[in-house]
Amino acid sequence: MCSISRIAVGTIQSGTYDLVSMTVYPGDSGSVDVLSPVRKTVVISVPSGGPDHTFNTQEADLSGNYLFRQNGTITTSGGTTVTFTPTCPAADAGAMGGGTASYTSVVGAQTVLSIFEPHGSGATVLEVYQKR
């Protein structure tokens, strides 16, 4: 019999995460504008003295010769929702913008963070990250 008692669901862990898969569900729009193929790395850390549901994040997206970096904060609520607020570049200075998405986090031998990002017309992009 297998034991999964060491797996915690819903808790985002500090660390470096690499994108391992991206699935686009186009919904009614028929298409979604995403970088593809893309390599993404996200570093998540708890700010010193900060609440346990707020994290600093740094993201780097690489596609061909295009490199995009941004910093921001993520805040979790309800164990299933994450809100991203960009800080650099600022949202009005070319950042990909903030927003709210659903997430799951499975902590175990291989920690996996899945982000379900809504797009217009019922589209969803599922990004799955694995912690190094």
Q: Main attributes?
A:
132 residues, mainly beta, Lipocalin, eight-stranded antiparallel β-barrel, 56% strand
Could you describe the 3D structure shown?
The structure is a single chain. This protein has 132 residues and is mostly beta strands. The chain has one domain (8-131): Lipocalin (Beta Barrel), CATH 2.40.128.20. 0% of the residues lie in helices and 56% in strands. It has strands at residues 8-9, 15-25, 39-45, 54-63, 66-77, 81-88, 99-107, 112-118, 124-131. The protein has an eight-stranded antiparallel barrel.
Please count the helical segments.
0
Mind telling me the CATH superfamily name? Calycin beta-barrel core domain
**Which CATH architecture?**
Beta Barrel
Count of spatially separate domains: 1
The low-confidence parts are 1-8
**General form:** globular
What is the CA-atom radius of gyration, in angstroms? 15 Å
How much of the sequence is in beta strands?
over 45%
H/E topology pattern: EEEEEEEEE
Query: What share of residues is helical?
Result: under 10%
CATH topology: Lipocalin
- Sequence of strands across the biggest β-sheet: 2-3-4-5-6-7-8-9
Number of strands: 9
Structural class, please? mainly beta
